[in-house]
Amino acid sequence: MLLGLLGAGSKHGYELKRAHDERLPRSRPLAYGQVYATLGRLLRDGLVTATGQDRDAGPERTTYALTDDGRAALDQWLGSVEPPMPHVTGALFTKVVVALLDADVDRAQAYLIAQRRAHTERLRELTAVKTAARATLDDIVAADYAIAHLDADLRWLHTTLSRVADWHREVHS
Amino acid sequence: MTHLQARGVVKAYGPTPALRGVTLDVAEGEIVAVSGPSGCGKSTLLHCLAGILRPDVGEVSWRGDRIDTWSESARSRLRRTEFGVLFQFGQLVAELTAAENVALPLLLAGTGRRAARTAAVNWLDRFGVAELADVRPGEMSGGQQQRCATARALVTEPRVLFADEPTGALDTLTGEQVLTQLVRLAREQRTTVVLVTHEPRVAAYADREVVLRDGMVDHTGLGFEASLGGGVR
Ligand SMILES: Nc1ncnc2c1ncn2[C@@H]1O[C@H](COP(=O)(O)OP(=O)(O)OP(=O)(O)O)[C@@H](O)[C@H]1O
Ligand SMILES: [Mg+2]
């Protein structure tokens, strides 16, 4: 996630926290400690690099930017489809926000389409489970629960794809 | 020989384009969902495939014959014998009882009155509404009407069933019961089904989903083989 925020331009630790909390208001606010711990890990792994420091406004501030490896790691994360389970919504939403933040419409669309495919496939599997002659009430109730959530996700995926396409068309005409 | 096929179908209502070149192959016994946002041309495509509308450009074939060039009477005979159609709006004849409504296609096809009535009640029973045989649509709930309309569409045991939003007005559970029964009967009799819906969960009953957008095929979901081979357990 922090990689995604850095993908849109280099930032200070504080700016990163703010960008995260603004973009993803539903997830828990990031603690500064968490931001710096993660940045430390990313630095160690060579995914980000410190590009500058400025001291004039009080405490020392280091600016961080993505390295090529960091960009590749971000691309890989954005490109991978989430397992279509009921709890997937958070990760799904985050990926779309990050892809759009990067102003990478093709990336966002490719991800949305791949995810829609995975969801559709899972929805069909669950429907088959439910309509099988041997299905027990347990099976059906469990399938219903997952289907209702996948159905909601899928509606959102369809709508978002249409919105992204409309928006893209407007910007490029 | 292909079963049911549309080739480059274009259809406009006056200045309004509804289909802008749709190509689609449906295999025998396949259940295909046609989905997409409101106004994308789903009903228009269904009507073209069923021989109700004639495309402005393009071809529609049924078992190798181009039905779009057939006369109106030849096409309506096809609809009475080989096809069953479940419309999005205005299904049942208000003046007739449920049994009379369901028997109607059989009577039109020349079946005797008694045999038609027996078959009609039998089909109403398969959709759990046999007790409504002598009730008129005005006194039924939306879901009950839908079941009767579904029974009527299947009573001739058509080779292809065209269903336009068959669960549109139904609550989730009732819709599911109608759909489950419809799919089960279709599988038993190897009936081909073209199912129009804008709901992902309804489309999931099909072997394959074709998504329309602005009168064109946007993308196609799992293929028939793929869904049989891998995905479905
Ligand atoms: N009889 C008609 N006269 C004029 N325009 C029509 C007619 N029927 C449909 N249209 C137009 O053609 C386009 C496609 O309509 P169609 O009914 O096929 O859409 P649909 O995908 O079935 O929509 P819905 O999900 O709302 O049923 C729409 O723009 C619609 O306004
Ligand atoms: Mg329609």
TrEMBL record, chain B:
Keywords: ATP-binding, Nucleotide-binding, Transport
Alphabetical list of Pfam families matching this protein: ABC_tran (PF00005)
Lineage top rank: taxon: Bacteria
Statement: the UniProt record of this protein carries the keyword ATP-binding: yes
Coiled coil: none
UniProt cross-references to PROSITE patterns, sorted A to Z: ABC_TRANSPORTER_2 (PS50893)
GO terms under cellular component: plasma membrane
InterPro entries xref list: AAA+_ATPase, ABC_transporter-like_ATP-bd, ABC_transpr_LolD-like, MacB-like_ATP-bd, P-loop_NTPase
Family matches, as PANTHER family: ABC TRANSPORTER RELATED (PTHR24220:SF685), IMPORT ATP-BINDING PROTEIN (PTHR24220)
Protein name: ABC transporter ATP-binding protein
Organism: Micromonospora craterilacus
Lineage of producing organism: Bacteria, Bacillati, Actinomycetota, Actinomycetes, Micromonosporales
